[in-house]
Give the backbone structure.
Amino acid sequence: MHPMINIAVRAARRAGNVIVRALERVDSLTITNKSHNDFVTDVDRKAEQEIIETIKKAYPNHGFQAEESGVQGGSEYVWIIDPLDGTTNFLHGFPQFAVSIALQHKGRLEQAVVYDPLRQELFTATRGAGAQLNDRRMRVSNQRDLEGALLGTGFPFKHPEHLDTYLATFKALMPPTAGIRRAGSAALDLAYVAAGRMDGFWEIGLNPWDMAAGILLIQEAGGMIGDFGGGSDYMETGNLVAGNPKVYQAILQTIRPHLSSALSR
Ligand code: IPD
Ligand code: CA
Ligand code: CA
C-alpha cells in the first residue's frame, strides 16, 4: 500500500472510533444548525481534529480543505475531509454514515478512503492502482442499462430552488429501474457504486468533501463520473452523475431534457 493511503486509513479509523463511541450518547450531544437542515456536532469537530492531527504528524507541510475547519495551509498536497458524512442519520441513530478522506496533488485526486465504522468496511483507492473493499479488489457492476438498475441519489434539501428540476429527473429515471435509494451519505453511496452494490448515482449541490474520495473510488473501480452535462465541472458545481460506464451514460441522457439552464453542468 502507498504510505499516504496508510496514513489516511489510520486517520479514518481514529475518526470512526470517535463517532462510534459518541453514538451511545447521541441524545446528549450539542447540535448546532449551520444553515437550514445542516447540522454539526462536537463529534464532527472532534473526528475532524483526529484526522487532521494524524495527517499533520506524518505530513506537516500538507494543506487541508475540511468541512468543519475550512482551508488550512498552502501546498501542492491538499487533503479533502468530511469527518462524518451522514450527520443527520447519525443524529437519528440511523446506521448509515462514513468518514471520507481524499488527497489531491496539484489538483488531481490521488488517494481515497471512505470508512463505514459500524460495518467496519474500508473502501480505498490509489490512482492507477485500483480500488479495494477491505483489501479485496472492487469493480463497478456489469448492469447494461437503466432497466433493472439500482440507483442511489440525494435530495436537494439545502437547495429548494432546484426541487422541481430534481423531481423531474427523478420522475424520468424511476420507471425503468429496479429501485432508487436515498440512504443519506453521499460518500457511502459513491463507495457502493464503486463496489457494484448500486449501478449509478446522481445528486445536485454536493460539496467537494462529500464526493472527493468517492469519485476516485469509482474511477479506480472502472466507473465514470461527470457533471450534469457530462463534463468535468462537478467539483465546482456540486452536480454529480456517477455509475458504471453504461448506466452513467443512460442517466445523463435521461436527465438531459429535464435540466434547467442553471443545472446543465
Ligand atoms: C450530506 C450527505 C447527504 C447528501 C448531502 C450532504 P453531511 O453530508 O452526504 O447524503 O445528500 O448533500 O451534505 O452534511 O451529512 O456531511
Ligand atoms: Ca457530507
Ligand atoms: Ca459532514
